[in-house]
Amino acid sequence: MSYTVAALYQFTPLPDAEALRAPLLALCESLGLTGTLLIAREGINGTVAGTQDAIAAFLGALREGPLLAGRLDGLECKLSGAQAPPFRHMKVKFKPEIVTFDCGTTDPTGDVGTRVAPEDWNALLDRPDLLVIDTRNAFEVGLGTFRGAVDPGIRRFGDFRDYADRLDPAAQPAVALFCTGGIRCEKAGAYLKAKGFAEVHLLQGGILKYLERVPEGESRWQGDCFVFDGRIALGHGLDERPDHPPEALR
């Protein structure tokens, strides 16, 4: 049996987020899904796995069902496959943030920069005045990254603020950011825009969307992309990487 894996997120006001936890868990369990969803007053984030039909029903319920009443119509989602169950259980957690950064001080629903489609990312990378930053942690960068990208050397995403505070917007006005699925870049982009960086570009859909859409022969990506489930890493075409041993299921 094969599984469909959906990595999803959207920043959107959810003032009733805590009350949504139990019905979201019930929805996932009714469809036989496994994985983790994080829900906060700033939005939703997570990765879930199940049959193709179950994932389709789940995404339809999020986008169009009465539970969220159209509040996730801009849901960012990447679909990939797995030959073995990538998770053991289904968890839905209420959190202060759907991606931990600065306790909600940075607003990712405002100006986060310019989103760049994966098909246009290579042309952007050719700009000589551009600082390209990998916003992921050092372990993730070690598995793979874009040629020429700067590794900020962070252990967790919240440390990105310290790195950004050492940059000079006047000396480096044009910046491009990327991460696994796009969510960390939105907070990082909002933080840089608030600090006065004139140009901030984000890889829309993150590395996963780039690996899905850009042919390997045209790709600037080197290595594999770490994912937050038992598959460990994916390559071009979002194929599982057999050279990474399976992680203990979560």
Automatic annotation (TrEMBL):
The keyword tRNA processing applies. Catalyzes oxygen-dependent 5-hydroxyuridine (ho5U) modification at position 34 in tRNAs. GO terms for molecular function: oxidoreductase activity, acting on paired donors, with incorporation or reduction of molecular oxygen. Belongs to the TrhO family. Its EC number is 1.14.-.-. One of its GO terms (biological process) is tRNA modification. Residues 126-219 form the Rhodanese domain. It catalyses: uridine(34) in tRNA + AH2 + O2 = 5-hydroxyuridine(34) in tRNA + A + H2O. It comes from Methylobacterium soli. Pfam families: Rhodanese, UPF0176_N. Keywords: Oxidoreductase, tRNA processing. The lineage of its organism: Bacteria, Pseudomonadati, Pseudomonadota, Alphaproteobacteria, Hyphomicrobiales. This is tRNA uridine(34) hydroxylase. HAMAP family: TrhO.
